[in-house]
Amino acid sequence: MAEEHEEHEEHMDNANPYALFEGDIGDMPAEARMAAIALKRDRYISGPTYDTVLDNRDAVVRSLNNDLLDLVINERYRIMYATPVAGDDVTLRSLKTRVSLKREEAALLAFLRIRVLEYENVHADPADWLVSFEEIRAALATGAGYLAARNDEEGVAKQIGAIVSAMITYGYLVRLDDEAMYQITPLVPVVLDRELADTWLDVAEHGDGDTEDDDDDEKGAE
Fold first, then answer.
1. What are the boundaries of the region Disordered (predicted)?
2. Where do the structural domains in the chain lie, given as residue ranges?
3. Which fold has domain 103-206?
4. DSSP 127
5. In terms of C-beta density within 10 A (0-12 exposed, 13-18 middle, 19 or more buried), how is residue 206 classed?
6. Strand ranges (DSSP E) for the chain?
7. How far is Cα 23 from Cα 44, in angstroms, rounded to an integer?
8. SS3 per-residue string spanning 44-73
9. Is 178 helix (H, G, I), strand (E, B) or coil?
10. Rounded distance, CA 168 to CA 173, Å?
11. Which tens digit of pLDDT belongs to each residue from 17-43?
């Protein structure tokens, strides 16, 4: 009986303090695991999860690196995201892939970046970075907008709706209770500066092809 008790105490001494299930050999606290999962699953993280990563940075980065991901931190906007590692010597595919934007999506992202700049010039809180569907439609379908040459209003509206849905999926817009209004997320100024936004608008109006959304491009976001 005494021998069994000693074996039990030895097992307790050797038990993994971070174990969440039987046989778990993970070395991360539960909250750090949740943060790492969010970085791998979501477009970006902010708020309390941002602070959790700061408190457990080494462990979270190690977890990301195991899945061929790098951690990108933007202190100005207090957001983080995971981006695929780059390099000619990396032959394995990362858990996440880069977003390749279509030309019309790049045009909208550029418009949103310039809109954020206008909000920042009047020191608006990020929670108030709002844009309406009509403003998006006007930016893309009038004047020099990407869809201005099309005469099919119903078709244009459907296409713009699809573009907006894609931007929500990519984490650049959040749909509000009012379905005609959207909140622009801090991810927009983090991945796109004003100069690049102007370039993308010009490409959308005059060029061809798709535009790669390079998560590593943070010029002007520091």
1. 203-222
2. 30-84, 103-206
3. Arc Repressor Mutant, subunit A (1.10.10)
4. G
5. exposed
6. 45-46, 69-74, 79-84, 99-101, 130-132, 173-175, 181-184, 211-213
7. 31
8. CEECHHHHHHHHCHHHHHHHHHHCCEEEEE
9. coil
10. 5
11. 888 888 888 889 999 999 999 999 999
